[in-house]
Amino acid sequence: MTILVIGATGRVGRHVVDQLVQRDADVRVLTRDPTKATFPADVEVVQGDLLDIDALRAAFSGVSTLFLLNAVTGDEFTQAIITLNVAREAGVERVVYLSVFQADLAVNVPHFAVKHGAERMLEAMGFGATILRPTYFIDNEAMVKDVILQHGVYPMPIGGRGLAMVDARDIAEVAAIELVRRHDTPGKLPIETINLVGPDTLTGTDVAAIWSDVLGRPVVYGGDDPSGFEANMATFMPKWTAYEMRLMAERYVSDGMIPEDGDRERLVGILGRPLHGYSETARALAAA
């Protein structure tokens, strides 16, 4: 039986596919444009999107286990619910779903609320699922590296409470481990939620200090101004998306993303190694 990976073309999804291939899993990927898919030769690539019911039904044929990562879009909730309905129709009960940290609390942030809705469906409709709740992705810093390198400012308004930023490689490896575990277990396993966090809880000032150390020159934190962040985002993305990013940043400033007791130890136990930290990515981006 096959593991179907939906959301395979982004940073996390590509790592998930690679991790599954390393574990000798049979992997199928659903993508809008197979000509742009660059996966190992033994990965089956099928064309379709999450609103194409016929393509979804075909993609689920012969599948036992699903990895679902929805892009942040205006119709994300519809895509998620339709996909899970088609999975259930196909008899697929084993799911690893990429949600977000504290999805149940940040109810005013659209893509947090959407993911909590999908979590509720997984539980209410009897799926055997692992729900992964990652914090802020360290890999997102690639989007702001030019501002840091050229202007000496860390521009993300992440606040003073702290975010336990997580590396996409750690997210993907935990996802692959859970997919294989559910795939290989004879019976349906109960729902389980795993917070995906990094080794350090960092404030905006902490991150600026890391960059100062990496670059050998001062980098300052740009401050806790979600409105300015929204204005900058709106210059290159749809205004509704920029506004959603502002709402998310407001949550960073007010609440942070603080691990629960035992979160880090649990992840280290699953992975059998230390977690990747922020400084590693900062050094790689600076060198690039």
UniProtKB/TrEMBL annotation:
Pfam families: NmrA. PANTHER family: PRESTALK A DIFFERENTIATION PROTEIN A, PTHR43162. This is NmrA/HSCARG family protein. Residues 2-226 form the NmrA-like domain.
